[in-house]
Design goal:
Nucleotidyltransferase, domain 5; five-stranded mixed sheet; alpha+beta; 12 helices; Gyrase A, domain 2; 498 residues; globular
C-alpha cells in the first residue's frame, strides 16, 4: 500500500495534482499556469500534510553524455559543480547520474548530465510548495523514472514510447538499459496517438542515427505502451524490418500491476508514471537542498517519533520486568516501600527549603508585556538568512565556511530600528577565491559584499580581514604570509525597523 502522498504532474501550461491515501485518490485538481491557477493550487494545498513528489514532462529537458575522471569526496563535488556551471548555468534544476564505470584504461566514469532548462516553468509552483511548507521529496522527469518499465526487456537499443494526456508523445532511448536521450512531441488538435507514433517514429530513428547513438547494423527495439485499440491500429500501420522491431505493452496490464483503476479508454500513461514515482522514487532528482528543506524536517520528525516509540516500548518492558521482580519478593516490596517513604520525606524537606517565588502583580504584568512584545518580533531564521543567501548568489568568489546565529541585546542600536528588541547577530566566516595576488581587488570585492548587506538594513562589522589594510599595514609586506584561501570574519546584525 502506498504511503500518503501528494503527486504532481507538470506540463508546459498545466499542473495536475492528486492527494493519495491508502493507494486511492482522495482529492485531485487541475491548475493552469497563470495567476488564477496558482491561487487555486495554493488553496488546494491547505489541508495537505504529507510528502510531495513533482513529476515533470517538458520539452525543455537537456541530456549530455560525458566521460569524466573517477573521483570521490570534495574533488568529485567540485568536478560536478564545474560541469553544471559549464552546461546549465541558467537553471538550478540539474543532476548528474552515473551510468557505469569503464572497465579499461583509467576506469573513468560514464556520466549523464541533465537539466530542466526553463526554470520559469517550474519555480512558481515550487515557490508555492515552499511557502506552504510542503515536504517536497524531489523534482523528477518522465524519462528519469521510465527505466523500471523496461528493466526486464532484453535489448541493447530500446526506444520506449508513451503518451501523457497533459504533455504529449514521449520517446525515450535506452542503451544497455541506460537512459541516453528523450524527446517530447506535443499532440494537439485531432491528432490521435497512433497517428503521432507513425509520424514521429521515423524522425526519432533518423535523429538517433545522426547522433551515432544507434550503431550501424543494429536493430532498434520499439517498446510501445498503449491500449488494445491503439495497438490494433499500429499493427496495421507499422511494418517490421531489420532496422526496427516493434513490441506492444498493454497499458491495462501495467495499470493492474500498479493497482491503478482504469480512468479512461485511451493510452494515457500519466497515472502509471505517477504511481511508479510514488512507489519507487529514484535517488537522484532535479531538486536541491533548498527545495527539499521541509522534506528533510519531515524525515527527521518521523525518525524522532520512531526513536521515541522504541524508547517507550523499552521502558514498558523494563517496567514490566521490575513489576514482576517486585511481585516475586515480599521483602523486596517492603524495602521499596520504605525507600519510597524516605524519598518522600527528603522531597518534602527540599520543597520546604525552596525560596519564596511570590511576585507582585505589577511585576508579572510587566513580564507578560515584555514576553508578548518579544513574541510579536520573533524572527524566523528564513527571514534573516534569505537576504544573506540571495546576496551570496551575486558573489561567486566568496565562499562560506561557517555561520553562527544568536540574539544579543548589547549590540549598538542603529538609526530607525527598535532598540528594545534584541538584535539578531550572524557571525559569518568565509574566504575569497580566484584573486591570485590582487589583494586590493579582493578587499574591494569583500567591501562591496558588506555594502550590499548594509543596503538591506544589516549592520556589518568586519571582525577580521584577509590581511591588514590599515594605514600602518603594508599589503606588499604581507604577500608572502597570505595563503589561499583569503579568510575573513563578518559580524552581521539586524533589528526590526521602527
Amino acid at each position: 500500500m502506498l504511503k500518503p502522498s501528494l503527486l504532481l504532474f507538470l506540463s508546459v501550461d498545466h499542473l495536475h495534482a492528486q492527494h493519495m491515501l491508502g493507494g486511492e485518490i482522495v482529492a485531485q485538481g487541475a491548475f493552469n499556469n497563470n495567476p488564477e491557477g496558482r491561487e487555486k493550487f495554493t488553496n488546494f494545498l491547505q489541508p495537505i500534510k504529507c510528502p510531495c513528489y513533482l513529476l515533470t514532462d517538458l520539452i525543455e529537458e537537456d541530456f549530455r553524455h560525458e566521460i569524466v575522471p573517477h573521483l570521490i569526496g570534495s574533488s568529485r563535488a567540485a568536478l560536478l559543480k564545474r560541469k553544471f556551471e559549464q552546461f546549465y548555468r541558467g537553471t538550478p534544476y540539474h543532476q548528474a547520474t552515473l551510468l557505469q564505470r569503464q572497465q579499461t584504461g583509467r576506469r573513468d566514469d560514464d556520466m549523464l548530465f541533465s537539466a530542466l532548462t526553463n526554470p520559469a516553468l517550474i519555480t512558481p509552483w515550487v515557490d508555492i510548495l515552499l511557502a506552504k511548507k510542503i515536504a517536497l521529496a524531489g523534482i523528477y522527469s518522465v524519462p528519469q523514472i521510465s527505466a523500471p518499465l523496461i528493466k526486464n526487456y532484453a535489448s541493447k537499443h530500446l526506444l520506449l514510447i508513451s503518451w501523457e494526456r497533459y504533455s504529449g508523445l514521449r520517446q525515450t532511448y535506452f542503451s544497455n538499459h541506460h537512459l541516453q536521450i528523450s524527446r517530447l512531441t506535443p499532440v494537439q488538435g485531432e491528432t490521435t496517438f497512433h497517428d503521432a507514433v507513425v509520424k514521429e517514429l521515423l524522425r526519432t530513428y533518423q535523429y538517433l542515427k545522426s547522433l551515432s547513438l544507434l550503431p550501424t547494423g543494429e536493430t532498434l527495439d520499439v517498446y510501445i505502451l498503449c491500449n488494445a485499440a491503439d495497438r490494433d491500429q499500429l499493427y496495421n500501420r507499422l511494418t517490421m524490418s531489420v532496422d526496427m522491431f516493434y513490441d506492444f505493452v498493454d497499458i491495462g496490464k501495467v495499470s493492474a500491476q500498479l493497482h491503478i483503476e482504469p480512468a479512461s479508454n485511451d493510452s494515457d500513461a500519466t497515472q502509471i508514471f505517477l504511481r511508479q514515482l510514488a512507489k519507487n522514487p529514484p535517488t537522484t532528482h532535479y531538486a536541491n537542498t533548498n527545495h527539499t528543506y521541509y522534506y528533510k524536517l519531515w524525515q527527521l520528525k518521523h525518525v524522532l517519533n520512531f526513536a521515541s516509540a522504541a524508547v517507550f516500548i523499552a521502558a514498558l518492558g523494563i517496567s514490566a520486568m521490575n513489576i514482576w521482580q517486585i511481585s516475586s519478593s515480599a521483602d523486596e516490596a517492603n524495602s521499596l516501600h520504605l525507600k519510597t517513604l524516605q524519598t518522600l520525606e527528603a522531597s518534602q524537606k527540599i520543597t520546604a527549603a525552596f525560596p519564596n517565588t511570590y511576585a507582585q502583580a505589577g511585576d508579572m504584568k510587566s513580564g507578560v508585556t515584555v514576553m508578548r512584545k518579544l513574541a510579536q518580533h520573533n524572527i524566523v531564521s528564513d527571514e534573516i538568512l534569505r537576504p544573506v543567501s540571495l546576496a551570496l548568489d551575486h558573489y561567486a568568489k566568496l565562499e562560506m565556511d561557517e555561520l553562527t546565529w544568536q540574539t544579543s541585546s548589547t549590540e549598538p542600536v542603529a538609526k530607525n530600528t527598535q532598540g528594545d528588541i534584541p538584535a539578531q547577530v550572524l557571525t559569518f566566516k568565509g574566504h575569497l577565491t580566484d584573486f591570485a595576488n590582487d589583494y586590493r581587488a579582493a578587499l574591494n570585492y569583500l567591501e562591496q559584499f558588506q555594502n550590499d548587506l548594509s543596503a538591506q538594513g544589516y549592520q556589518v562589522t568586519a571582525l577580521s580581514k584577509p590581511f591588514d589594510d590599515s594605514p600602518s599595514g603594508s599589503i606588499a609586506d604581507q604577500s608572502d604570509a597570505v595563503k589561499s584561501p583569503l579568510g575573513f570574519t563578518l559580524k552581521i546584525s539586524h533589528r526590526p525597523s521602527l
